[in-house]
Each structure stands twice: as C-alpha cells, then as structure tokens.
Amino acid sequence: YSATVSLKKALVPLPRLGRIFVDVVDDYLLKSADLQPGNEVFVQSEYHGLDKFNYTKYHVIEHWYNSFPKDMIFGNQNPQFTIPTIQNVSTLQVATIWNNQGNPCPKKSAKHSDIVYSCIDKPFGVEVWYKDFFKNANSSELERLENLAKDDNQGPGRIYYELFWKYHMLIVPAKTARREKLRYGNVQRAVSQMRSGVPVLLEINGEVFQDFLIAHNYTCVYVTDEALLPIKMTRRIWSFDEALEAMKSTEIRQKCQDEGLEIVKHYSPSTIVEKELRILGYEDQFDCDR
Q: Which of 12, 121, 192, 211 gets the most CB atoms within 10 Å of its CB?
C-alpha cells in the first residue's frame, strides 16, 4: 500500500503499509509519545494537533455534515430535498435536538411568550422515538415516515430532517461537560442542522466554535459570556435573549438559512474526503458528483 489509516491506534511501520496515519477522532488522551516513529495523525482541530502532537506530523480533517445517503452523495450540490420556506409567523416553534443528558438545554426567559421552545433530549436512534413528535400525523403520513426510515438511501438521517422541518428555528448550544470537546472537537451538530435548511442559532463557546465564527462570520450566534468570544471578533454578539428576539425577524432567519446553506458546502462529504485523499497521496482528478 502507499498509505494505511488506523483508527485511534498506533501502527508499527512496515514497508508494505506505506505511510501510516492514525485517525485520532475523539481520543483526547492519545499523544505523540503513544505513537510509533513515522506515524502521522488526523485531528479535527488545529488546537488538538498543537497541544497533543507537537512532535508529530498532523493534518486537520474537519468532520463532514450528516444528513442522509441520498443527499450526502451529491457533494457540494444543492440539498436533495425541498428547502423549507421561511415563514412570517406570530409564534415561533423552536427546538434543540440534544441527545445529551449530561447538560441541560438553555432556558428562555418568560418575556418570549411568542416562542414555544422544545428541548428534545432523546438518545441516539431517532427511529425508536420519532413517532412521539408526529402524534398528529395521519396513517398515510406515518406510513411515509416508516418507509423513509427503512429506505437505505434515506434512513434515520432523513427522519431527523423530517423532525427539524417541524420547527421554524433550531438552537445548537455548546456541550460543556467535556472541556476537550470545546477545544479539540468539531461543528458537526451545527452544520448537519444547517444543511436541513432550518435556520440555526449557534452558541459560541470554546476555540472550535470561535474559529468557526471567525472563518464564516455567521450571523445567528449568541454567547452566555462575552469573555468566551475570540479576541479577533470586532462585531457585537447577541446574548441568548437578544438572539431569540432577533430571530423573530423573518429577514434574519432568511439570512441565517442562506448563510448556513453556503457554509455547509465546506463540510460536504466529498469536500472532506477529497482533502483526506490528497493528504494520503492521491493525485488524480475527482468525479464525486456524477
């Protein structure tokens, strides 16, 4: 082989393996001293490489967005579904898809009586519990969802999107239980929900989200503490309450939808895979969108 990739584990160099890469993923304990001479690593953030692999050649490979197979194989093209229309409504239906019993969802103040906020704190495996949120669906709609869940080209990812589309806005808070994730993790939750076309309100907390904000200057963000903002940030960032008030505007939500759909092109599976293949030594042309 010209190159070999190992998951979270060092490999002894052998001529038949070629260049050896260790994909660290979320192993935040692994460090240069644990690797074999000549091993290179894939990390998801620059900080992970600098802090843990300062004696090792490392490569930053971001995490791609998750949607569903039929959509993901089309790379940087427009989503393979109808983008939801931004509606002017008197009451905003808002949700956080949490999958995290370790941290509570953020609380909105009582002054936002025109916002109905749901914290969907459910385990992974949406196909098990999604019907709890489609209780008003008729039999034909439930059958459609069941067929989507069983379809290899749609599957659970499509069910998540069907759930997202029930809301006018999604909130993505930072997961603060593990400090390492804020510095070494990724923005997969944010970009996966942006890809759905539902406007996303994102909390900025930690270096990974700070760098995301600097790179894309995304409008719909908030902070719980201004000390958490990157030093390079010159524009004022909303508090959570200010952000909720701003997101009531149809124009603001439209702006965030447009920005999100452009941002996610940088995190498409084809973009990320092409980057990794170049590092592995592939020099030919790509034809990922056929």
A: 192
C-beta of residue 205 within 8 angstroms of C-beta of residue 174: yes
- Residue 279 token pair: 């590092």
| Vertex 162 angle, CA 166 and 266, to 5° | 105
Q: How many residues are given for the chain?
A: 290
CB distance 12 to 36 below 8 Å: yes
Query: Pairing relation of β-strands 221-222 and 200-203?
Result: parallel
- For 103-139, the pLDDT digits (tens) are 777 776 667 889 999 989 888 889 999 999 999 999 9
Q: Which residue has the tokens 């593990």?
A: 178
Return the structure tokens found at 144: 């459609």
Phi, psi angle pair for 73, to nearest 5°: -75, -5
Q: What pLDDT, in 10s, does the model give residues 42-69? A: 999 999 999 999 999 999 999 999 999 9
Closest CA to 27 of 5, 4, 10, 3: 10
Q: How far apart are CA 54 and CA 31, in angstroms?
A: 9
Instruction: Locate 214 and state its tokens.
Output: 């600097």
